[in-house]
Amino acid sequence: MEEKEKDFLLQELKQYKEIYEESKLILDSTVDFISIADDKGVFLRISKGAEENFGVSDDEILGQSAYLLEKKGIIDKSMTVVVIESKQKEFSIQRTRTGKIFMVTGIPMFDEVGNLKKAINISRDITEVEKLNHRLKETEELLDWYREELHRKQELQENFIIGENPIMKKVLNLIKQVSTVDATVLLQGETGVGKSLIAKTIHKMSHRREKPFIQVNCGAITESLLESELFGYSEGAFTGALREGKKGFFEIANKGTLFLDEIAEIPLHLQVKLLHALEEQEIYKVGGSTPINIDIRILVATNKDLRQMVKEGKFREDLYYRLNVLPVYIPPLRERVEDIPILTHFFLKKYNEKYCTNKKLTLESHNTLTSHFWQGNIRELENAIERLVITCDKDYIESEYIYHNLFNIKEEPNIEVRGIIPLKEATKEVERQLLLKAFKKYKTTRKISEILEVDQSTVAKKLKIIKEQKR
């Protein structure tokens, strides 16, 4: 070999070595992991970091097939394999055995006649980015939860569904829980405990709060009209019907909440239709044969014992169990006496603002209201406070004014029995006068029961009887 040719080859070899060293430096210096494989998927070159990224050494990758690495579970999906099969540029997310997450770009390389020659992968580590995205998602979900909880709490407070009584606190927690699901809720309790208000609050705290809330008092609609009012009627269903027919409350409440108050008043023949609507989420109009799909949440309320009505054959058993998915019992005011001052303050503020007054209750007045037997529960208490705000002409509402003008109870001057009367009647009269004197002096049933050494419930019942006799 001539000296000139030898020098040329050495020079060329030197250039190739420089190119190799430069490319190796680039491969090892880049933040991305780069791999080069032939058309069979065998790795020819890789940048450093194989062990950190894949849990294997460089030697365990170089000369190995991408198909084999995928089979061994070193990577979940080989971009080299994808590029070889598609023969075009590809993008994908790749997860490795070590828990790393890469955004991989696969680039095919062709020879001069268009045959696939090599597959080059550029892998960018996005593990920390994915972790941050995951944390961000968790934080957003937590913020959404806090927003919902704050909204529910505000709804409870704004609608005076408040209380310190342990039983009522459990009810409040239950209301918050049932508001998040679409199951049927059965509200039970005496007249005036706030069943309608709680139904509205459940709706306002639910995901349906932007949709209609339709309240129907089943006891206020005559039996002959109830079916058409609930389910609507078709064109020409009966004499006097609108020509175009009419939507019922089920259709009007679609996507929202339908509250059926006094559910015990629905007649037996309509209970079958109601059960079908609950189970199938579809209704039939009066005079119609085509089912209408509905998407509503059903809330019902009653002050009657539905279980007893089932035993008496006045209420369908299957409907009872369908309604009794989430029962909520709202206690009467006499079972949550400690909540009366809170409610009193709320109503006093409400009606002072309504009538532009600034009436206040004395401590004795608060005790008088707290000790009263509120047969009409919250509704009666609210009406009483409104009446006191309107009728009392003084800034401070005294206890004497309350039991004279609100309760119509007036004290007798002395405990005495006039004339000869049967002993039983005399005993009742002495008891009546004694209770009135004690009420005048001590104001609360709790204190009266201590002084007279009888149960508080006995005092409350007897005072209630005296009040009714005075009317």
Automatic annotation (TrEMBL):
Keywords: Aromatic hydrocarbons catabolism, ATP-binding, Coiled coil, Nucleotide-binding
Pfam families, A to Z: AAA_lid_14, HTH_50, PAS_9, Sigma54_activat
Chain segments annotated as coiled-coil in the UniProt record: 122-156
Keyword DNA repair part of the UniProt annotation: no
PROSITE patterns: PAC (PS50113), PAS (PS50112), SIGMA54_INTERACT_1 (PS00675), SIGMA54_INTERACT_2 (PS00676), SIGMA54_INTERACT_4 (PS50045)
Record-annotated Sigma-54 factor interaction domain positions: 161-390
Domain PAS residue range list: 19-70
CDD domains for this protein: AAA, PAS
GO BP: regulation of DNA-templated transcription
Segments passing through the bilayer: none
Superkingdom assignment: Bacteria
Span of domain PAC: 87-138
GO MF annotations, alphabetized: ATP binding; DNA binding
PANTHER family reported for this sequence: C4-DICARBOXYLATE TRANSPORT TRANSCRIPTIONAL REGULATORY PROTEIN DCTD, TRANSCRIPTIONAL REGULATORY PROTEIN
Name of the featured protein: HTH-type transcriptional regulatory protein TyrR
Organism: Anaerovirgula multivorans
